[in-house]
Structures are given as structure tokens and as C-alpha cells.
Amino acid sequence: MTWLVTFDCNVHCKFCSTHQLKKEFPEKISRERALELAHQIGRSGTWVCGFTGGEVLIWPHLFEVIKILKSYGVHVYIVSNGLTLEENVDAILETGVDYVVVSLEASNAQEHNFIRKSLIREKRDVFEAAIEGIEALKSKRKGDSPKIKSSTVFSPESLPRIQKTLKELEELVDVSSFQPITSHPPFSPHQPDEKYLEVFTWQERQKKEAESAIQDIIKNFPQFNTSYFNKIPDFWFEPEKLKCQIRCWSPSLRLLIHPDGQAFQCTENPRFAAVGNVIEQDILEVWNSEEMKKQREEIRQHKNGCICWTQSTAFNAFMEDLPLSKKLPILNKKEVQRVE
Ligand SMILES: C[S@@+](CC[C@H](N)C(=O)[O-])C[C@H]1O[C@@H](n2cnc3c(N)ncnc32)[C@H](O)[C@@H]1O
Ligand code: SF4
């Protein structure tokens, strides 16, 4: 479950369009409904629930909702820009959340703040706040729970410093990772600002440079030697090639909840409409809705003809490395014939 609790944010980043999405998907889920929903998710047997947005730490019901999910044994992670992390450390620890992911674009204020700027009303530098928040979390947590992960967006802009950033952040957090820049309008916040498209979008002439950078990262950081990270250059430069290699099982395994209650299995391909609304329907009703079944069947027959990366494909890549996946028809290599 990916629960996008709000598209509101206290920071403005050059590669994210959450402030535009906020107008289209205003927050409509009340506190009462959010708590009920958490119980429904817990009872449904959901494995993992991730909170993102927008900025999750400004959503007023976050901690109550996580506590309910944890009471059912759901694994929970949150993704934050870190601006208000420090003042929320005690509340975060009380929830029992498993992972706190903090987005860090560099290991120094200047490069980080070039991309990520706190809104003027916040009167706080986002880099300094995120680092202080992480330090506070580390000093107050018991043992290594919650785990703290940094996530850096890899784009032409961060190319010159990506390895240095990953190395230096290893000293600060438990897991230092990166994700490829993506552009997925209209429902996902992953969309660079028009003014900065040049800075964050790869040009064909940069293909060799990007490929060798990924290979270099994999050589120096063996934890990234997985099919997901190896295929990043293909995703950027030859996504068509991946359509036959990467199977989508998004509708079989996940659901995304938007701040207005609409639920999607996919927000990358605009052809896939909402499969229900969690304000009006029980979570299992949404999961088993006619629309969900229709989308599931289309993808099961490989008629979707799309390819995406950060979310479903990262998950696919992870599953591909598990022996279980070889037994699932959706990833069965013998069945790779595509139906266009
Ligand atoms: C949309 S943010 C929401 C959570 C929180 N506000 C934050 O910044 O971490 C979730 C993640 O998406 C990443 N992100 C935003 N725009 C992106 C883009 N165009 N391509 C890839 N990742 C992007 C952010 O860096 C962050 O790690
Ligand atoms: S990436 Fe996160 S912090 Fe930056 S604008 Fe988007 S939601 Fe806000």
C-alpha cells in the first residue's frame, strides 16, 4: 500500500510537481475515516504500507494511523524531506515505524538547497534541518529501529557528485541509496519543473556518460548490483527495450491511495483510471472492484504496453530476484510473448 496522504509540502523542489497536484487532489479523508482505513488495511493482511506525498510530516493524522497499522504487524515506512523531522522525533519513535527515508540530494547544504528550497514561511534551511533531524533520530532510537535511509535522485544534475554523495551519506544513515530521475505526469509528483527540464532530463548525447556512471556506481557499491539498477540506463534511453523484459504486476500486489480518497493501482499510465474511492468503499471492496479486475486482466495478458520505473518496476526487480517469482504466471519467462 502506498498512501499519499497529502500533496501539500513545506518545500519546493525543482524536479517535483506536488504543488500542482495539490489543486487536483485536495485532502478529503477525515481523521475518523483515516483511522478506520488504517484498521481496514491492518485487517486486510497488507504486508507493507508506505507514506509519501507531498510532505508526510505535515499531515496531522500520520502518527495515529501508523500506530494502528503497527498494532496489526504491518511494515511501515515514511518518506520525508526532513524539514520538520527533529521536532517530530519523539512522535515518530512512539509509532514504532520501521523505516524513515529522508531525501538528500547532496552531502552539503549548497548543492542540496539548489534543488530543494523550503518555503519562505518555514524560515529554516532544509538541508541543515534534515541533518539535525537524522542526528536526533539516531541519538534517541533504541538499537537501530527505525532504520534510517537516505534517498538521492540521480539525474544529469547530480551526475558529477553522485558517488561522493552516496559515500558521504553512508556515514550518516543506515542505508544510502538513490533513485533515477523520472517524469510521470499527470498523476505522479515525479515531474521536473518546466524551467529546469534541461537540467534534469538526459539528452541522447549523454547516454554513454550515464551508462558508465551507473557501471561505476555498481562497481564501487556492490549493493546496487541488481537487475533494477543495471537497467536504469535502458529505462532512460531505450525504454521500449524493457517492455518485453519487465513484467508489471502492480495490480496484483499494490494499491495507491491519493489524498482525495481515490485509489489507483497505477499512476504512471493515464489510461488506468481510479479503481475506487476509499472514502466511500471498504479497502477490500476497492481491491476487488470490477475496475481493478479489468486492469488486472489487461496487465495479466500483457496488453498494457507501458513501462515505468521507480515504483512498480523497482518492486518487480526486487521480486524477480526471489525464487517465488519464477512460479508466478505474470513473471513466467516461457510466457513472454507480448500481446500488443
Ligand atoms: C515526491 S517525494 C514525497 C516525500 C517527501 N516530500 C520527500 O521529498 O522525500 C518522494 C520521493 O520522490 C522523489 N522525487 C521527486 N520528484 C522526482 C522525480 N522527478 N524523479 C525521481 N524522484 C523524484 C523525492 O526525492 C523523494 O525521495
Ligand atoms: S520532492 Fe518532496 S519535498 Fe520536494 S516538493 Fe516534492 S513532495 Fe515536497
C-alpha Rg (nearest Å)? 20 Å
Distance from N terminus to C terminus (CA atoms, Å) equals 29 Å
Stretches with pLDDT under 50, minimum 5 residues: 335-340
Beta strand count: 11
Helicity range of the residues?
Answer: 25-40%
Order of helices and strands: EEHHEHEHEHEHEHEHHHHHHEEEHHH
Record the strand order, biggest sheet.
8-7-5-4-3-1-9-10-11
**Rough outline:** globular
SS-derived structural category: alpha/beta
* Assembly form of the protein: single chain
Q: Taking all residues together, what is the mean pLDDT? A: 90
Strand count, sense and closure of the main sheet?
A: 9 strands, mixed
Which kinds of small molecule does this entry bind, naming each only once? S-adenosylmethionine, iron/sulfur cluster
Counting H and I runs of at least 4 residues, what is the number of helices? 16
The proportion of residues in beta strands is 5-15%
In short:
By secondary structure, the chain is α/β, with parallel strands linked by helices.
Give structural notes.
With 340 residues, the chain is of the alpha/beta class. It is 39% helix and 14% strand. It has 16 helices and eleven strands. It has helices at residues 18-24, 31-43, 62-71, 85-95, 109-115, 126-140, 162-170, 197-200, 207-220, 227-230, 232-237, 239-242, 250-253, 283-287, 290-300, 312-320; strands at residues 2-6, 11-13, 48-53, 75-80, 99-103, 116-118, 147-154, 175-180, 256-257, 262-264, 276-277. The radius of gyration is 20 Å and the shape is globular. The protein binds S-adenosylmethionine and iron/sulfur cluster. Iron/sulfur cluster binds next to strand 2. Iron/sulfur cluster (SF4) binds at residues 9, 11-13, 16, 18, 53-55, 81, 116, 189.
